[in-house]
Target: Hemicentin-1
Amino acid sequence: MIFIVITTIVFLCNFCELLNNFKTSLLKASTSAQSPKRPSFAEPIPNVTAAVGREAVLQCTIDDLDSFKVAWIKVDTETLLSYHTHVVPRDNRLKVTNSNSDRQWFLHIKNLDVSDRGFYMCQINTEPMISERGYLDVTVPPSIVEEKTSTDITVDERSKVSLRCKAAGYPTPRVIWRREDGKEINLGPMGAQKSTVPRMEGEFLNMTQVMREDMGAYLCIASNGVPPSVSKRILLQVNFQPKIRVNNQMVGAALGSDVVLGCRLEASPRPLTSWIRNDGVILLDNKKYELTEEADSYRINMQLKIRKLEIKDFGHYKCVAKNTLGDKEGFVRLIEIIPPTSVPHSTQSQEFYVPVHKGSSDASKNDSHMKKGYGIPAPNSLRDESQSLSSEEKQMSSSKEGETLDSDKPKRKQNQHPMQGSQTDSSGSCQTSISIYVILVFLLATLLFD
Model:
């Protein structure tokens, strides 16, 4: 009996506890149904990057805002910028807008400054308070720091030069050097060779040994991805003493004509130039003389034009250049050229064939050889003349038939003058013909009488 009573009491206690739990659950459900939903952030605040002077917009997206309020705060300075749509500080650059049924809230910052860079908080006045943060990065275009950058510089040839270009900006700018004329930069000798590069990167441009070819303008260009890029032009002047080269050291011209004399000059700084005649007179620009110069950097082309040449104009001329480092001279000789009056005609030489006698003595051969050298036969005896006659007749007959001379009768060639030589040959041939005819008549008469 006691056991039954105890069991009944325990059951009644458990039932009461279950009933209390049920009542509590019903109360909680009723309370949650009557209270509004808590707001929440739909997404993080995107980070924003903008350049100085531009406008930046930060966006905060909220779900279920209901009657709660939104505030914007600068984190690093803990400055309250806005409460709902009201801007707290007196800053005309700030503005707050919302859209999409108060779901999206925007913080506008105009005319950005470097001090605006940092974290910004979007806060909702719930209990406890909830917030979301985003970062605003303010970039700065590159600029040249003039007080820390090289200016135009003048050095002597073969000197060492170091140029500097200091740039500022955010992010840190990249500095590149190049020549304005597009030529390669000479960094100096590297062993036995010269080291040249089309461009050089870095704050400093070091050249160990500058030459006259390195003279010109150098550009340092700074860029960091934020437009616009900036550059500075630095002029490098290399000084050296004058050097003159004369391409034509001797020039010829005729009387009455015009002539131009020239000298090629290299010098820096720009030299004083002049033309001096062989009598020491410095020539000036006038009707007789015309002085011109064509300059290309340190190269100068000097020209002297002399009009209507006279006898006194021929001789030596001197081009002179002088600067602070020295002076140099170049010499040109002007000579007279006589133009041809007529065109000469060529004279063709004549060839004569003189027969050689076989049966004569040594003395007669020598004598005959000497005379035949001048184209005149040597009549030492009748036999010689008859042999000469027979040989000449054979030669004439063979030439008519188109045959060549016999190999045992060599030919002699001799060039004769067009006037005197022809007269001598004609007189000698006439005398020979008369002698031959007399001999023939004598031989015929002897045969007939016999």
